[in-house]
Amino acid sequence: MAGHESHYILPRPVFDTPVKLLIVVAPYYKDIADNLIAGAKAEIEAAGGSWDIAEVPGALEVPTAIAMADRYSNYDGFVALGCVIRGETTHYDTVCNDSSRAIQLMGLQGLCIGNGILTVENRPQAEVRADPADQNKGGGAAAAALHLIALSRKWGSQKKNIGFRPASEEILLAGDNDGSPTA
Fold it and tell me: Which residues hold 5-amino-6-(D-ribitylamino)uracil (predicted)?
């Protein structure tokens, strides 16, 4: 059983300037969501960060809210939380796959997102995974976001003079001090 395996956990990142995260949660199963939130908040606070919470109706709306927040606010990262329990129809597969895919695509575009949307077969599995004193998947999602923020700050501050420059930039570099091209 996965809950009894030993896993390596990266040390908590340290930040020179505080981080601010948005926890986006779908509280469809309120008790499970509350435990996920508790774990996420504790992890963020332990790293010296702050957080806001946004609630959305379901797991499919979590990525949309994250995209909106990225567009209209100034968060360093995001924690996606919710729970999808398998039912009698294929709707479970759609919700799990599409919410995960959207979060992954935003991550590939540079957003720092920890995905803590549980996808489980039954309620007992969700309860164990959400419990901050047990598997603490909310805390794990927050930790993932914090690690990605640390990497983005590390790599975002490195300016390397590699790659290609657009032709318009080459013309400016070859010009006089006023930026006009020289003959």
Answer: 28, 59-61, 83-85, 115
Model-level pTM?
0.84
> Of 35, 5, 48, which is closest to residue 126 (Cα–Cα)?
35
Residue 28 is labelled as binding a ligand: yes
Q: Is 119 annotated as a binding residue?
A: no
Domain-by-domain residue ranges, the chain? 18-174
Q: Rounded to a whole number, what is the distance in angstroms from the first to the last CA of the chain? A: 73
Q: Active-site residues: which are they?
A: 91
Is 14 assigned a ligand-binding role in the annotation?
no
Task: List phi, psi (to 5°) of 113.
Answer: -125, 130
What is the band of 3 on the pLDDT scale with cuts at 50, 70, 90? low
As a whole number of angstroms, the distance between CA 59 and CA 143 comes to 20
